[in-house]
Records
---
Amino acid sequence: MKKLILISFFICLAGCQSAYYAAWEKVGVEKRDILVDRVEDAKDSQEDAQKQFSSALDEFSQLINFDGGELQDVYEQLKDQFEASEESANTLSDRIDKVESVAEALFDEWQEELEKYTNVKLKRDSQQQLKDTQRRYTALVRTMRKAESTMAPILSSLRDNVLYLKHNLNANAVGALQGEFNGIKKEINQLIIEMNKAISESNNFISSMKS
């Protein structure tokens, strides 16, 4: 029964996607345009993730340099930064999924339309354009997913530290977490590097699609 429900869900989802793209095409917006928009959205999320994880690192730095005051306030701020980072990561993953969804629909449609050509030269040119676009797209998604993968270990480390601090609001707890800082800092610096690569790849792909 569960399997049948799952199959029905995916059939409905596919139908909804088709209807969505068809509705946009009626007003002159093609899948190609939607793909560019979604890549731009994903790029924005990559930039947001960079800023958010950097902000979380700053908050962590303040924690380990804690020198008197209300530790509960510091904990709450670190917790807020973790939750904001988690939300930022989820948004980015969702937007990459949407990029892949429309790209798959675009390439399937493009491949099918190749069979409708009667002019051999035009068909050959279109086929080459498809291959070039798929190649650039594959490089783009590979870079996006690599950058995305750097977020999970950071979130895991931040979550551990937030949970530990929650139940140990004292100076000893801060001392225990000081050893975690350098590892998290290294991971976030690597995330920023990978995000910059993905942002650059996104800009290149957008430019190639608009040219």
---
Amino acid sequence: MRRMALVTLVVDDYDEAIRFYTEALGFRLVEDTPRPDGGRWVVVEPGGAGQGGGLLLARAKGEAQRNRIGDQTGGRVGFFLHTDDFARDHARMVAAGVRFLEEPRHEPYGSVAVFEDLYGNRWDLLQPAA
């Protein structure tokens, strides 16, 4: 079976990104391995082990990559974080300082609110309708 394993997210600083994704969003650090070129292989994921859908946090190299930090999708929501308890996770994220761009909405497809990560990338926090 095929599944999406990782998506690269270009970041400014490994440790800053790890703190945000693990502390503010509640992801778990899966791997943080030094690389011979001075970089690191850093993987975080929101779910349990082996559920897939992790982020490879890649420190920007060069001006072109630095210019994409926080704008990897041209201002669109580019990432979707599903939850089984919207109210719980929304409250925890607000308490952790996550910046929501709107009040929660209850749509036919589920409960949703757009938030920004520490770099300005837009995400949906989404509890799909049953």
---
Amino acid sequence: MAEQLKDLADDRALLGRTSTAERVSDILRSRIAEGYFPPGTRLSEDSIGGALGVSRNTLREAFRLLTHERLLVHELNRGVFVRVLAVEDVEDIYRTRRLVECAVVRSLGEPPYGLDGLAAAVEEGRRAAGEGDWKGVGTANIHFHRELVALAASERTDELMRSVFAELRLAFHVVDEPQPLHEPYIARNVAILEALQAGDRARAESLLAGYLDDSLERVVEVYRRRVGEDG
């Protein structure tokens, strides 16, 4: 925890001169997504508030915001913890992803599409795989899908899926073998990108739907085993 708090103190500069609960929640959301605070971790108000240099009230409001996003949970007389998802939560996350992501692809207008962000995420994943950084591959994969959602050019959809993807990272952090989980989807991201580059929305949507169905099955299988072992 000491190392995480030292890194967190480096985030003070992100707060600027007017530290707000929203900015604090942005920082904590990113740190949770990166795995600095794994699922089940108790978040100390004193330690985190001291590291960020913010008041207790500001930090509590940030905690409240992240609890509303289902990233944190408040346990009476125990404190605030990074949420541990149930298998049903993981299934619901993927149900939401399928509804939104497939709809985004289906509703794209006539090509060409702005695919630079998708292409960059593919290269990010390839680079991380080349370095044997499989958690980095998982991060790149989420970046790919975030860029896919961004094709809708909708701030509300982006905000909705930002929360969904952050929850998804909670599930990924429970998995201790990220390579078999993430490696197969590098090539599948490439196939989706190539279909969109060719202007073939129908094929891209079909590939995406199959991708999400297979990913759900794989993640739930591993997650159920891990949660069962830890329980």
